[in-house]
Amino acid sequence: MARLPDRRPGSKKKKKYKTAAWTRSEGQDPEGGLNAKGRASAKAEGSNLKPPQPGGGPRKRSYCARSLGQMKKFPNAAKDPNSRLRKARRKWKC
Fold it and tell me: Of 13, 40, 42, 37, which is closest to residue 27 (Cα–Cα)?
């Protein structure tokens, strides 16, 4: 006998996505970068991402230098205050 799906009120079926959370808006921070869920999904795929280091240190200096090069390479993103590049630089306090 086949088992019927659970249709009780309050029981929600988890929605399965074909893409990881870090590629969708639910894994991205509206202020730029990834949120904890996005970092967790990227880590599950083999990445080693860490949260921003706004207090200072070598990771911050390195990121700020790299992203400054991106601002030079992509002037349209540099002019738009709501671009992902500018949001991420704000988050890192560059």
Answer: 37
Strand stretches in the chain, DSSP E: none
Domain residue limits, the chain: 20-51, 58-91
Each residue's pLDDT tens digit, 43-61: 898 888 888 787 888 999 9
What are the C-alpha distances in Å from 45 to residues 9, 14, 49?
Answer: 34, 20, 11
On whether the CB atoms of residues 53 and 91 are closer than 8 A, the answer is no
Q: Which amino acid is at 89?
A: R
Per-residue pLDDT for 65 more than 80? yes
